[in-house]
Amino acid sequence: MKRALLTTVLALIALLGSAGAAMAGIDGDKDEVTASGDKTESSSQGAPGNDPIFRVPVPYTIYRYTPACSANDTPQGDDPKAAVTGADALCGQAVYTCPQDDAIRYRVSTMKMTADGKSDGEWEDRTNTVCRGADEPAEGGPVQITEKMIHDEAVKKAPTSVVHVEPETKSYVNVPTNFYAETKTETATLSIFDQPIEIRFAPSSYRWKFGDGGNNEGAGIEAAKVGQNGAIENVYQRIGDYSVNLTRSFAVTYTLPNGTSGALASPLSNTSAPYRLGIGEVQSVVTDVN
Prior knowledge:
Layout: H1 2-16, E1 52-56, E2 60-67, H2 92-95, E3 103-113, E4 124-133, E5 143-146, H3 147-157, E6 164-166, E7 170-172, E8 177-180, E9 186-192, E10 195-209, E11 215-217, E12 232-234, E13 240-255, E14 261-263, E15 268-271, E16 275-280
């Protein structure tokens, strides 16, 4: 039991003990800032990455957790990496007083840091203790922007997909109906931690559902001739009202405030509102022209 708990403590200390390890949260006043840091390559996986793309240089706080045992010192002085005596020693007070079975009771020490990562004072010990499990995220640390943050904000800013039809709103049985989509690249500006990030949405694929079971792919051509190469057409066989949908995917690139550019690892997609298309019937009527 104690050996397992010791392993847990050592893992937590490795994660939480260094000044640069903590990632979540922000503490301190926000001064005027400029972004800094190197470009991070996009993940080869489909999901957006949580690795930092760059650090926002604002003041922050670092945390140090020491098992709440009398044999353990807390960090002292103004060195963010100050060593402490007996920091990994365990005792009943640390092991057996938390309601969760896998948690350890800690004394918490904090230090204010400047925007450029230097200590802004000495270590301060909080008067209370806290219980933390092995899987709890670290607190404090530099403010970092990740690809996932950009991805989540880009989803909100993605251009709306709109169905364009010729002829509009009504067509006819056995008559080719022409469809097309917008193809231009659109830009927007995101704000993450008050940092402006320019983002570009370049349409990369187009998928059509015509409401009669038919589908197609491609951007289509406005005012296309019947059968023109690249045109998106559909011939309806029966009269009725049909719902047409367009799904566009976008390759997304961004520029950080420091001028560094990058791209999301996977495209974003959205689907248009249904376009209501009525299909009628054309009949020939023979009249006496004499």
